[in-house]
Amino acid sequence: MRRVRWVPFLIALLLVMGLYGHAPERSLVLAEGPAQPAAPSGPALHAVSLPLIALRTSTATPNLYVIANDDCDNTYTVAWSAVPSASRYVLEEATDQAFQTTNVVYSGPGLSWVAASPGKLPGTYYYRVRAFHSLGESPYSAPRSVVIHPIYVGLAVRWDGSGYVRGSIYRDIGVHTRFVFDQLTAPDTVRLNGTGWYDPNPFGWDAEQWVSYYRASTGEFLSSPSAGDPSWKWGYSWLLPYGASFVDGATVSVSAVPFRVSGPHWGTTTYGQPIRFWQFVNTEAFTMWDDGADLTQRVLAGEAVLRYDADGSGLLLYSDVRRVFFYQGRATSDSVQYVETLTAATSLPGSPVVTFGATQDVLPAEGGADHPEGSGRTPNPAEAPLARWGTIIPEGATLEDAETG
């Protein structure tokens, strides 16, 4: 009987089937291992041992949808398309586009995930998703990103401090300010409700409330119902310009006054969280208040110290400004100094809740209030300008690049 040499033909057939005969979503993997001897089967035929053939199944890649945040708050939804036969999806988050450090924020059968209250801190967040089923997983989706700006609906900040009136009279004053960005009044326009009060209040000054409007995407100050009191000649911003960069030893302009930059330094917030900050100190004397007649207040060189968060929030963390009274151009023995510190902010990690304090919890109606310096009464020159305003212009930048508020 002539032997049938079918072994080479069988091997070739199996290879062809493995390469071309499987479904588009399947691949053949030849498992490694020693050949197993075949059992004798009567007449002498060529026996052959074939490796074990296993199937590894890949799945289609889910589509990650554009992440919308048109309401300009710090919460949003990340959603993706369904994949047939997928049993779960894994959504990863990163703060760098290369996903060098990732955090799994969702793993389950759903098709969306919500960055719910209290929401995200300011920054850019990147996401990617992949699908899993019993025999494998898909590649990662194309990434999507979303930006939470330093000004957003829901931002709340509080500063507390003390004022020291010294000279012909001695008084200690408690000064408190609260900002709440409570709603979107137009596309990309966020309303600020501000409240300021004094406690202790030896002079019996009234509490103040005002409304201002900012562009969320740029931090630009848009408007306020009042132009403010023109007797105040200088102010400082409560927030760094978006994207501003600083260099240790450089000079910046704060409302047209040169300040020397140092840092970034490490410090601790009033509630025990470590924080990096830039420090600005004025290098020249300047006039802060002028009654238009005989009395002015000047800040001498080195007596205005401002500290700002060096990371995502850009918030004013600390201010110490001492003003000396001048009468007809001559310095007097009278001075007033305010030292204020940020005590709570929803845009900083680990912050306590921003409380309203001792004043009434009533916010002014839209369009019905103005800056405290424009309230229609004559301010006492020992008061603090509770509505923080001013410009910060990094070295080499222009006024259009700076935040004004």
What does this 3D model show about the protein?
The protein has 405 residues and is mainly beta. 3% of the residues lie in helices and 41% in strands. The protein contains one helix and 23 strands. Strands 10, 11, 12, 13, 14, 15, 16, 17, 18, 19, 20, 21, 22 and 23 form a 14-stranded antiparallel β-sheet that branches. Strands 4, 5, 7, 8 and 9 form a five-stranded antiparallel β-sheet that branches. It has a two-stranded antiparallel sheet with strand order 1-2. Strand 7 and strand 8 form a beta hairpin. The N and C termini lie far apart (102 Å). 32% of the residues are buried. The C terminus is likely disordered.
Outline the secondary-structure elements:
Blueprint: H1 7-20, E1 26-30, E2 53-57, E3 76-79, E4 88-94, E5 103-108, E6 112-115, E7 123-133, E8 136-137, E9 144-148, E10 156-166, E11 171-186, E12 189-198, E13 208-215, E14 221-223, E15 251-254, E16 257-268, E17 274-282, E18 286-290, E19 295-299, E20 304-309, E21 316-327, E22 330-345, E23 392-393
Question: What Rg, in angstroms, do the CA atoms define?
Answer: 33 Å
Count of helical regions: 1
- Residue-averaged pLDDT: 82
Strand content: 35-45%
Shape by Cα distribution: elongated
Cα end-to-end separation: 102 Å
Helical content stands at under 10%
Report the strand count: 23
Main beta sheet: strand number and arrangement? Answer: 14 strands, antiparallel
Low-confidence segments, given as residue ranges, are 6-40, 43-50, 52-56, 358-378, 396-405
SSE order: HEEEEEEEEEEEEEEEEEEEEEEE
The helix/strand class is mainly beta
